[in-house]
Amino acid sequence: MARADLDKRPDDVAAMFDGVAKRYDLTNTVLTGGQDRRWRDLTRAALDPRPGEKVLDLAAGTAVSTVSLARSGAWCVAADFSLGMLRAGAGRDVPKVAADGMRLPFGDGVFDAVTISFGLRNIVDTAAALREMARVTRPGGRLVVCEFGTPTWRPFRVAYHDVVLAAVLPAVARRVSSNPEAYTYLAESIRDWPAQPDLARIIAGAGWTDVAWRDLALGAVALHRARRV
After folding, report:
1. What residues does 96 pair with on adjacent strands?
2. Quick check: 1 pLDDT over 70?
């Protein structure tokens, strides 16, 4: 099993996630010290899904996040381009669809809300993916992006890049993940990702308004919120 590179060719990225699917949820929990659960709760609260609404959970992986969203009473569908991820979550009782974030298999204005957690970074064209999400969301509908960010406090930012991403993450992945090499890509993609204000501008330019964000983990993670124009 290999890792994708930062060219983010869809087939390579999908194959990489197929390779980590078996122990993906466990690895995430270990790497984040259990904070992944808290981030899911905060993402759900920010999206505020309501009974009767239709919600798209894009890059849903094994559908852990989709199950959390569905507890609101909304109809929630898990979409991911990794068949391995969807198979790993087959026992979770939510609808699942194989989908490329650049060409979503849904009509215009179908969803009341859309969310993507730690997946936007893996799509080759960020702005195009955000425009596609806007296309399938009704006017006035909601977007929440939970993604890695740039730490706001410089000493932590240096330690995060030089210690956590360079040493701690690979060491833990070697012990826990079913494909440790994939986490080298993870570290590189985090370093390459735009800071929160830059991502906010990309979101605003892709058909969304009222863009705002909330830093988590001292900015190592951020929640961006927006509304469909």
Report:
1. 78
2. no
Q: Which tokens hold the place of 62?
A: 């094994």
Q: Please report, for residues 8, 48, 53, 187, the alpha-carbon distance to residue 113 in angstroms, rounded to integers and kept in the order given.
A: 26, 9, 8, 29
Amino acid type, 9 = R
Dihedrals phi, psi of 77, to nearest 5 degrees: -115, 135
3 state SS of 168: helix
How many CA atoms within 13 Å lie on the side-chain side of 12?
Answer: 14
Copy the structure tokens of residue 13: 């990225």
- Sheet of 96-98, strands arranged across: 96-98, 75-80, 54-58, 111-117, 137-148, 221-228, 208-216
Report pLDDT digits (tens) over 96-153: 999 999 999 999 999 999 999 999 999 999 999 999 999 999 999 999 999 999 999 9
Beta bridge partners of 214: 223
